[in-house]
Amino acid sequence: MPEPDFLDLPDRGAKPRAVGLTHVIDPGAGPVVVTDLLDSAAAHIDIWKIGWGTAYVDATLATKLALVTGHEIAVCLGGTLLEIAWAQGRAGECLAWARDSGFDRVEVSRGTVAMTPQEKRELIRRAARDFTVLAEVGEKAPGEQNAARYWPGECLADLDAGASLVVTEGRQSGTVGTFDHTGRVRADVVEAVVAAVGVERVVFEAPMASQQAWFIRRFGPEVNLGNVALADVLSVETLRLGLRSDTAVATRRDTAETA
């Protein structure tokens, strides 16, 4: 079947992309689900995060990672597992296991266990020896105060410690960190982080379609979006391209079509 090319759409860079990243969260999908998604949407996925601690208990992990990396998609270990390992004094073992398993990225966060910013930066330096590091900022509980004041400094420090990208907390629910309890974007937080480090260095966790559309309208189709549900990958790409009403710009040609 020929690919359609009759619409004027925004330019989207080809993989491997440096901007316009779509970062998905895998809650423990099996190989059949993964294969089905990759068949239809692999070209639109850049980073595949194995969420929470599912990598630790997934008997099909090796098969899944082989499928994903075979489509030029980076695989990222979720920050919660590394946090728990760090709290137990096993961060080195966790990182060695992740490396040997085939992960090329790790998320470093401090939203689950008690970890100071300095301890987080030390963990970033350690992880950056073997991985591309995504450093997450923000709490996993709703109602975080003064995020616009404190996140920019933490983002800058994390990048200085060796992180390649920063990730703004949104969780799978989309009701914490970057968002209020209703899921509305906290624009002051977003603008403060972007002013500090630049939009190209930030992955905005945005699991809801309304949140994804907000970021695309504000920063354009090449904004980095994270924690996208596996089932929503094609939907997000249509938002980027203006193929949904949320982001569409209506245009009309003056020249009438002829039969």
Q: Could you outline the blueprint of secondary structure elements for this entry?
A:
Elements: E1 22-26, H1 31-41, E2 47-50, H2 54-57, H3 61-69, E3 74-77, H4 79-87, H5 91-101, E4 105-108, H6 117-127, E5 132-137, H7 147-161, E6 165-168, H8 187-197, E7 202-205, H9 209-219, E8 225-229, H10 233-240
Parallel strand pairs: 1-2, 1-8, 2-3, 3-4, 4-5, 5-6, 6-7, 7-8
Description of the molecule:
The protein has 259 residues and is α/β, with parallel strands linked by helices. It has one domain: Alpha-Beta Barrel (TIM Barrel). Helices cover 39% and strands 14% of the residues. It contains ten helices and eight strands. It has an eight-stranded parallel β-barrel, surrounded by five helices. Helix 7 links the parallel strand 5 and strand 6. The longest helix is centred in the middle third of the chain and has 15 residues. The chain starts with 21 loop residues before the first strand and ends in a 19-residue tail after the last helix.
